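Protein modeling request. Please complete all fields; requests missing the sequence field cannot be processed.
Requester role: graduate student
Desired output: 3D structure, token encoding
Chains: 1
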Amino acid sequence: MAVIETRSPGQTPQAQSAERTWPAWHATLLNYRDSSAGQASWQVLNTLLPYGCLWFLMILSVQRGGPYALTLALAVAAAAFLVRIFILFHDCVHGSLFPRKGANTFFGYVFGVLVFTPFEDWRFSHLRHHATYANLDARGFGDIWTLTRTEYAAKPRALRLFYRFYRSPVGLLGLGALFSFLLRYRLPTHTTKRKERMSVLLTNLLIAGMVMVAARCLGWRTYLLVQLPVLWMAGAAGVWLFFVQHQFKGVYWARKGEWSGLRAAMEGSSFYRLPAVLRWFSGSIGYHHVHHLGPRIPNYRLKACYDAVPALQARPPLTIRQSLGAVRLKVWDEERQELVGFS
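Delivered output (343 residues):
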């Protein structure tokens, strides 16, 4: 198979080859990077309008004393749209939703307020994630906390217990989802600069203003009964999607000297095969190996790119049933080169 090879100075030939050697078909992905203002605008409309209508119906159900089960049923649908809003936010972070940078930044901040996430700060950590995912020596930016088996064994008992809770479904999908979106993103990521810190401050002010206006118009009880379940369910779904994108049986991790960008994308990122309706709500982010190979490809062109490149289709899919087994994977075993359970 033909390859395209470039090398960075200061690396050994082995490390350069592992990091910078790409197959010839990789250049095909450039054909799918062009953004469309029309498609992006349609996605904004078909996501924000239904989301707003669902909010209106939930508010009516609470204020008119209807059964809260009805409100929660509507909240499930609203949460699905909020997940889709986060995907549009994610595309804005990569500068891929709209053709123009200004439009991506504007809507990035708008979506960021709705998903309680600062645009520039999350952009900083997420782009670092793209540069370092599957690299054992560069963990800690936009990823799920993952220890090696040796690191876990060396931790004090209290930290081991906390890690066990963190990696549990309750920790990740329960408290973790609310903690991240309500509290974690209220503070800037470490090592960020002034622009990222200011984005956190601005987003916090905008969120505070949105909450105060909503509470003033609707009342605190109504607002919280609507906002909290929507945010929690959307957060849990988002965390789960992010989890299974890089935490699954057969996943690739490596130390810095052996790390390969191609293997990280093709083996360290999943192809999460979802039903069409879930694929729509998740903005085709299940084609995660394609996304990591071409981060500038907008969500509305990921499937077309996948369908056009046979090498991408060679990636074995991760089914929903198979993904459920990922909850048992806790630490990276460097000897066996795989994620394993605590036992």
